[in-house]
Amino acid sequence: MNKINDVFFDLDRTLWDFEKNSEVALRILFEEFQLGESIPSFKKFHGEYKRVNARFWKAYGEGKISQAELRAGRFRDTLAFFGVNNKTMGADMNAKYIAISPYQTHLFPSTKEVLLDLKEKNYRLHIITNGFKEVQHTKLEQSGLDEFFESVLCSEEVGKSKPHPSVFYEAMSRAQAKANQSVMIGDDFNADIIGAENVGIPGVLFDPNRKYIKNRTVNRIENLTEIPNKIIGI
């Protein structure tokens, strides 16, 4: 058993509550762009946007589309589903979404308390995120998380996305960390856990919705407060 010195975290859906923060931003857009005139309800708009956005992020993660294509397409295709074929509106909505969503500050329960506890125990904390650099740093600053982390790596800086090994190698290089003395904590089984373990970093899956409860092979937690004890056991 190696002593863990460095703890790498994913950001979205692990510390920063992406779903809650995104919904707040999307509600603002729904009202501001008067989408209720052409879309039956916010619920239907929100559900379709989530589906379309997930499809674009999957394609981006696989290297099939660019950041620009992701941003141009997600609102355009969502609107088109409801018969609103307006590329200009889609572009305007995307710009507004990027402007307001990083300023939302919902975190998962006990996020700051756990990070403070880890810092007091002398762990070095880092972020590895597939999110775009221009918004991820804003999220960290606005939600008061930036002070906890010694390094932040956005995968676009490497030119690849998690789970590509180069992302994790670059993160370790920046942090001057060793794989067998590190741990990766994230919500995405493939990007965070498999990606980290492929380069020798043990992974801990954050699984608050119990998607992987039957998987006995994965180190998993349902609440961030479990992290300190989980790290000791690695």
Helix and strand arrangement:
Blueprint: E1 6-9, H1 18-32, H2 42-61, H3 67-81, H4 87-100, H5 111-120, E2 124-129, H6 133-142, E3 151-154, H7 165-175, E4 182-186, H8 189-197, E5 203-206, E6 220-221, H9 227-232
Parallel strand pairs: 1-2, 1-4, 2-3, 4-5, 5-6
Notable features of this structure?
single chain, 234 residues, alpha/beta, Rossmann fold, DNA polymerase, domain 1, 2 domains, six-stranded parallel β-sheet, 9 helices, 6 strands
Give an overview of the whole structure.
The chain has 234 residues and is α/β, with parallel strands linked by helices. The protein folds into two domains: 6-17 and 107-232, HAD superfamily/HAD-like (Rossmann fold, 3-Layer(aba) Sandwich); 18-102, Putative phosphatase, domain 2 (DNA polymerase, domain 1, Orthogonal Bundle), CATH 1.10.150. Helices cover 47% and strands 11% of the residues. It is built from nine helices and six strands. It has helices spanning 18-32, 42-61, 67-81, 87-100, 111-120, 133-142, 165-175, 189-197, 227-232, and strands spanning 6-9, 124-129, 151-154, 182-186, 203-206, 220-221. A six-stranded parallel β-sheet has the order 3-2-1-4-5-6, with helices on both faces. α2 packs antiparallel against α3 and α3 (67-81) packs across α4 (87-100). It is elongated, with a radius of gyration of 18 Å.
